[in-house]
């Protein structure tokens, strides 16, 4: 039993750590032949940790302090972000009109930039890798012929930018990967799926002797997860195609409520028709996935491929979570004393975390 509890605590710790991935975004557009403009968005906390942007050392980084440190940031970027042709380098002009972006609870500094460079060219990016674990740069580049995307996740990695548009297959793989990453680092989505599964190891007492509380109805569990999949796929697709539009702020609030309520329902069993609750909340989670997809931007030349790839990536990521969780839940279900303590404890902890997210997001 002690080992079972240690496994559960390790999983919780791993999930919390998984939310701390560091991602920067480089979004560029070819506005004319040889001229490119856009912005790079980096985590303010990553920049603060790397560059020490708090001059008075009071632990509170203000907008004034961030603005005063603009020259430090741009000098750092000049050293760590470079565009080169085979024959020369392409000097970058950094704009002064910086701003802040909110990306799922993470504050990003949006730094405008532009440069003149003929294609083909090479992108070199080495910022934040030394000071931040699991750092990645997501590049989304629009050209007259189409669009291309890539990820730089190693400081020694260089990206060769060609004039041709990205193929449909490469676009599919890019968005597939992004869909998987989004659900894995999105702790709210992970915990909602976990609370759905916990309903099957903390069932209400039966009025008769059967069925046994020591069994898990895997068929019913699969149908429930399928309902969640269909629901969030619908709103993800409709939002990505601009057929519906919902404020990302309130979508995120709704997702936080869904996590809290589903966790509470594991203990209270207020809603016994789990499919209705799952589908309703699944529609909300689809809006959250769509928000992440909108930040990536759809490929202009392969729009439908982008949506399908991202959607399938989310599903693969979700299946991976379930495949890890089900054996542990089956093991937990065989130890009634541990289950009676651990399941309510985890459920209430998730409920409180969900309430905290609601408060933070409103």
TrEMBL record:
Signal peptide limits: 1-18
Q: Which UniProt keywords apply?
A: Membrane, Signal, Transmembrane, Transmembrane helix
User: Membrane-crossing residues?
Assistant: 181-201, 222-244, 250-267, 274-294, 306-332, 341-359
One Pfam family, please name it.
HupE_UreJ_2
Q: Which InterPro entries match?
A: EF_Hand_1_Ca_BS, Put_HupE_UreJ
Put simply, this protein is called HupE/UreJ family protein
